Amino acid sequence: MMNDLQMLKRWRLILGKESESTLERFGGGGALTDEEMLMDSALSQIYGSSGGESGIQGGRGSSSPRLTKWLGDLRTLFDPMEIKVIQNDAIERKGLKQLLFEPEMLDGLEPDISTASLLMMLKDQIPSKAKDNARAYIAKIVEDINRRLAEDIRRSVASAVNKREHSPIPSAAALDYRLTVRRNLKNYNRELGRILPEKFYFFERSSRLSSSRQVILDIDQSGSMGESAIYSSVMGCILASMSSLKTHVVAFDTAVTDLTELCSDPVELLYGIQLGGGTDIERSVAYCAELVGEPDKTTMFLVTDLYEGGNRQGLLRRLGELKESGVNVIVLLAISDSGKPCFDNTLAEKVSELDIPCFACPPERLPELLELALKKRSLKGFAQQSKK
């Protein structure tokens, strides 16, 4: 438990040097240690009234040694979660977007998806000296998402696609033990104490199913969808690496960009996203409809908050046509773990009336969602759990 003096010292660090005279009335808390003085200095750069004479500031001049020291102090004194909060506050409270363009700032930043979204939004303004560092930072985000999700996504897709049908071609590696036992229980031999199967059942080989299923990711790249755009783009690259799927990745604002050819390089694909434009969802859905091969083998994820700047009725009509043709259409209002999403509730209700699932999904549940979607299972229960 924290005693009164420790609590007062904590309040001194939170409120800054200006609070010393007030806190002295309650006992002060004692002089700050050397480490606490460093913490106080680092925090005052962001939360102090003026940032102090040595405060970190944006600008177009050469890189400042003070910035490197500030980053070093953060990494030494605070844990990763606290560092993320302070970094974000530095950007928001002090107007320090320019600091993101300093190479040593990018090198020192902890991987954070909201910071990556900001970088993507401002990437055309990044000076040449920081471009490589910006790409390296985006690569950190891609690596983190892959580490968390790639294996589970591949496993879920394999479960949904490679084991959906059975093959007459014998292969011990592809033997479906459960189905074989279940179908041959009637052939149990009591004398031998074992089942004597009449027929063996094998999972269909993925090579025979290669590209028989189609997944289309249609991604809203308006500024409010930054986090969702990153997660869905990386997911698209993971899916595109699987031969059992034919994957398309499309991004849109008021124009439509097909990014499928960039799926082999997630960082390059993310750099193809232009966050911050307007929104014409109807146009993008029209484009994606042209990509559909076999509707009943196609799953389309429309990743958007549904703030349509184009033809709302046209959008509903096109979504309805895709659904009626047999395409499994799913609207993801957000792929995010940062709180309740903001979206056009009226349009979301109308989309739901078309029997098209419409909900937000935390990134860690994407593998489960993919498996259910590819198996064409009901998503009602999944959507309800995702709202909690």
Structure description:
The chain is an alpha/beta fold. It folds into 3 domains: 4-134, no CATH class; 149-159 and 208-386, von Willebrand factor, type A domain (Rossmann fold, 3-Layer(aba) Sandwich); 166-203, no CATH class. The protein is 48% helix and 12% strand. It contains 16 helices and 10 strands. Strands 7-6-5-8-9-10 form a 6-stranded mixed β-sheet. Helix 3 runs parallel beside helix 5 (80-94) and helix 12 runs parallel beside helix 13. The longest helix is centred in the middle third of the chain and has 34 residues, at 128-161. The two termini are 33 Å apart. Mean pLDDT is 80; it is low at 50-65, 164-169 and 205-210.
- Please report the first level of CATH classification, the CATH class of the largest domain: Alpha Beta
| N- and C-termini, Cα separation | 33 Å
What's the total helix number? Answer: 16
Tell me the number of strands: 10
The proportion of residues forming helix, as a percent range, comes to 40-55%
CATH H level of the largest domain: which superfamily?
von Willebrand factor, type A domain
Catalogue the unreliable spans: 50-65, 164-169, 205-210
Average residue pLDDT: 80
Largest sheet: 6 strands, mixed
Radius of gyration: 27 Å
CATH architecture of the largest domain: 3-Layer(aba) Sandwich
Q: What's the order of the H and E elements?
A: HHHHHHHHEHEEEEHEEHHEHEHEHH
In the sheet with the most strands, the strands line up as 7-6-5-8-9-10
Query: Helix/strand/pairing class, anyone?
Result: alpha/beta
**In the CATH scheme, what's the topology name of the largest domain?**
Rossmann fold
The share of residues in extended strands comes to: 5-15%
How many domains in all? 3
Approximate shape: globular
